[in-house]
Amino acid sequence: MMPFINYSHLRLRLASTLASRLAMTQLATVRVPGHSEIKVPTGLFINNEFVPSVDSKEMIDAVNPFTEEVICSVSSASEKDIDIAVAAARKAFNTTWGKNVTGWERSRLINKLADLIETHAQELGELESLNNGKPLRIARDFDIGDSVQCLRYYAGWADKIAGQTLEVDNKTKFAFTKHEPIGVCGQIIPWNYPINMWSWKVAPALAVGCTIVMKPSELTPLTALKLSELVKEAGFPPGVLNTVPSLGPVGGAALSAHPDVDKIAFTGSTITGRKIMEAAAKSNLKKVSLELGGKSPHLIFESCDMDQAAIWAAAGITYNSGQDCTAGSRVYVQDSIHDKFVELLVSKVKELVVGNGLDDKTSAGPVVSKTQYDRVWSYIESGKQEGAKVVVGGTKRTGKGFFVDPTIFTDIRPDMKIVKEEASLCMLETRILFLRDSRRYLAPSFQLAGSKLRRKPYCWRMQPATAWAPVSIPGIGRELGSYALEEYTSVKAVHWNFGEKLDWPL
Ligand code: NAD
Q1: Where are the active-site residues found (predicted)?
Q2: Which atom in ligand 1 lies closest to the alpha carbon of residue 470?
Q3: Tens digit of pLDDT for each residue in 103-158?
Q4: Cα diameter, the chain
């Protein structure tokens, strides 16, 4: 007779080992030097759970640009994972979200999420600083503060989405429009403001009732995953927001071409924007909004408060280490004050502390990645080769960290590469602006607006009630303000016939 062997304890142990292994692979402990220890989810966030990829063993390394070391690795979504995330978002849209939930309830949940983000601001700020390089102080107080404000702004809109009642010329007919959530939205964001870009996209989409598949940049996936935890804690139903870190040409491309995605909201480079638009056109002609690159000018006139003008110009290019679509990377200075202004600008730039983002004294950290570092340095080299004069910066540091010290060029010409392209990043050209007549002071801005140069309205902190918009090409659609609500809704016209008779045949 066979001895009786009870395997149940073994199965349990196996199961619990598997469970803990799974848990281990979906959670990393990140130590933030001099600060806290943060548990970061590392799986894909689908249906309110962190899960590994169904078919890919690829992991994305999140790198600290100050130390050049890997912080932790997160799952990378495959095309199949994107299908699963889109199906989860579709199911939620049809059952628990979309038109199945009141505006008041959406508002309540978005406000709850804003409260949770505010409570976790320090931890989120540390993670953002660690992965992006930006100063913790700025990540926490500006980026996260602004994101909370953005969520609250759209929470206020959630129960105020309304169409119109329309007079029609027939007394037996009544017409009205409804502004309905567009459906499942793919949201693809860049690395320069990971939390800000997340909130700008997520808040209006949730407010109107859309569901989301969010693809953060492969360079900065950590805060989007941490925010997903808070989405679940706030009480959003499974599938309303899904997060799929992935490489752009894999997950981003799959989302853009997906036949069951109703809209793509994208912020990033112009070249990727073109690909997304093409994929949208070739698949289901989904709605697309594109926020792309920029190259903003400052115009400095002799009547200015020169000290303030120099501070604004310095901030315009050094903020976020220049990694900003609104970076004021061109400065046009009236001839009479040019030399004095440049001297002042250089002195302001020299006052900045460029260093470890986790240090409270730091004003600007390293740039986000080795690729970005090489790219910026290649622009600096090209500026030098083409004859521009470096008045500050322009020399590489030794040691670790993707640092590019603020660099200012003078003596530039319009045909130089650094003038024509979004060289961005810690680089500023000054150009002499000849103006004699104060009545003509506004003219250059119109002239610039008509030029081929890409541009953005230069601004400081974002205001959620205002529109954020490309003024001309490239770009489609508007972010922020009531304008963003239009990006996530479709207008349905309803004709209600309560007695109109039709003579037949026509
Ligand atoms: P990027 O275009 O390389 O990447 C942006 C996102 O697109 C990432 O998530 C990436 O994974 C994804 N992606 C890459 N290839 C893709 C593809 N083939 N299909 C779909 N998705 C793909 O841009 P970046 O370098 O991360 O961001 C920097 C750019 O973003 C700069 O040009 C900056 O000016 C711009 N930007 C614009 C705004 C704005 O509001 N207009 C704001 C921030 C940044």
Answers
A1: 291
A2: 41
A3: 999 999 999 999 999 999 999 999 999 999 999 999 999 999 999 999 999 999 99
A4: 109
- Kindly name the residue from 126, 180, 229, 291 that is annotated as catalytic: 291
What residue ranges line ligand 1, CB within 6 angstroms?
Answer: 188-193, 215, 217-218, 248-249, 252-253, 256, 267-269, 272, 275-276, 291-294, 325, 422, 468
Return the H-helix or E-strand segment holding 492.
strand 489-497
Give the separation between CA 128 and CA 120, rounded to whole angstroms.
Answer: 12
Read off the pLDDT of residues 323-340 as tens digits, 9 standing for 90 and up.
888 777 888 888 889 899
To test the pocket of ligand 1, the residue of 60, 215, 217, 220 to mutate (highest count of ligand atoms within 8 Å of its CB) is 217
Told to judge if 291 belongs to the known catalytic residues of this protein, a careful annotator would answer yes
Centre of ligand 1 to C-alpha 267, Å, is: 5
In degrees and rounded to multiples of 5, residue 480 shows phi and psi of 65, 170
Nearest CA to ligand 1 atom 14: 248
pLDDT value, residue 67: 97
Distance of CA 268 from the midpoint of ligand 1 (Å): 2
**What was the pLDDT predicted at 13?**
33
CA distance 13 to 90: 37
Do the beta carbons of residue 127 and residue 40 sit within 8 Å? Answer: yes
Pocket-testing residue among 143, 146, 192, 320, ligand 1, by greatest number of atoms within 8 A of Cβ? 192
Cα 479 to its chain centre, rounded Å, is: 11
Are 41 and 230 in contact by the 8 Å Cβ rule? The answer is: no
* Extended beta strands in 189-269, E state: 211-215, 241-243, 263-267
Residues 199 and 127: their CA atoms lie apart, in Å, by 16
Select from 208, 184, 207, 188 the least CA-distant residue to 198.
188
pLDDT of residue 25: 53
CA-proximal residue: ligand 1, atom 42 (nearest): 325
